Amino acid sequence: MRAMTVVPSPACAETIVAGDDLVVTVGGDWRITGLLPSWRKVRGDRAPHGVRLRAEGLGRWDSSLVRFVHEVQGWCREAKISCDTSLLPETVRRLVGQLEQAQEKRLPVDHSQNFLVTVGLAATDVWRQTREFASFVGECTLSAIGLVKRPGRFRWRDCFSEMQQCGAMAVPIVSLSSFLVGLTLAYTGAIILRQFGGDIWVADIVGLSTLREMGAVMTGVVVAGRTGAAFAAQLGNMKANEEIDALETLGIAPVDFLVLPRLVALTLMTPLLVMYANCLGIFGGMVVGATVLEIPPSAYWIETQANIDLSDFSVSLIKSIVFGMLIAVAGCLRGLQAERSAAGVGRAATSAVVTSILLLIVADAVFAVLFNVLGL
């Protein structure tokens, strides 16, 4: 005997008017790949007070029927009329309800707030971050005191490894940036000084600017983008892998084990990098003086020595120590605050760089006022 082939009946949606309501009867096989009725055509120009959906002769169906019922409910909601689906199969009604819930979760939330609320929330967030930063600085201070009391418990091997990474490995980029900054300062100064025949004073501008400002600031920015972000990424990745939780479970303080070696390494290496950057900045100005202004290197060096004293070196040294501490604290803090995901680690690294540069700018402004008051 030849097997009988079941021919699917097309999906249909017939309407009749019952009083003030529109009764829609769905039937046939509803397939997403087939021809489906359109609610706009089924409704026509009618404006009923309510819609009732029922199933009659309904065959196989898939999500196309659910979508049709959902479209009818949406139109009734916009028209502010009733929609009765009690005569539909229970499975269809349940799926339509799940679709409604899923769309409600995706609805955009109005985050618009007035100016005072925005300012208040921003102030609260700044205060919270300030408290967290102060608390972390306190923990680092206590850990440093413990290092002085018990130096034998300090992880010197980790510290030396970090010193190599944030010191020796940063020499190439610091060299390039410092040399180019010296060139730029010399070219900029020469534009004005050549008009008055004061070419030799380029040495004074480059020397003082490099020692008192540009050397420490540019090195701090480079270290913040290179080492501060690296600290945040390393600690954030360790937090995502639950390594920091394991240390706390074993009774080991993360600040002592992870933060302090990085803090000590960067605090020791940043002054060395800044002094090296100062020398290259002065050398960059000397190159411009010898090639563009035709100033002999010996005369340039004598003029530099005549206008630079120990106070200028002291200013550069103090700034470099503080900048190194701020960068290390900001990088480690953002790393410990990172979310436990790859995206969280990336955001922590970005936040570490932004925070470090912001702290550098604020600290440099404070130093400018302080040194002016002290006469340095």
Pairing-aware structural class of the strands and helices?
A: alpha/beta
Strand content: 5-15%
Q: What average pLDDT do the residues reach?
A: 84
User: What characterizes the major β-sheet?
Assistant: 4 strands, mixed
Number of self-contained structural domains = 2
Written overview of the protein:
- The protein has helices spanning 39-43, 63-79, 90-106, 115-149, 156-166, 171-193, 202-240, 243-249, 254-291, 297-307, 310-336, 342-374; strands spanning 12-18, 21-30, 50-61, 82-87.
- It is an alpha/beta fold and 376 residues long.
- The chain folds into two domains: 12-104, Transcription Regulator spoIIAA, CATH 3.30.750.24; 138-374, no CATH class.
- A hairpin with a 2-residue loop joins strand 1 and strand 2 (21-30).
- The radius of gyration is 36 Å and the shape is elongated.
Index terms:
about 375 residues; alpha/beta; Transcription Regulator spoIIAA; 2 domains; 4-stranded mixed beta sheet; 12 helices; about 10% strand; disordered N terminus
Question: How is this fold's topology laid out?
Answer:
Layout: E1 12-18, E2 21-30, H1 39-43, E3 50-61, H2 63-79, E4 82-87, H3 90-106, H4 115-149, H5 156-166, H6 171-193, H7 202-240, H8 243-249, H9 254-291, H10 297-307, H11 310-336, H12 342-374
Parallel strand pairs: 2-3, 3-4
Antiparallel strand pairs: 1-2
Concise structural overview:
The chain has about 375 residues and is of the alpha/beta class. The protein contains twelve helices and four strands; from the N terminus they run ββαβαβαααααααααα. It has a four-stranded mixed sheet, covered by helices on one side.
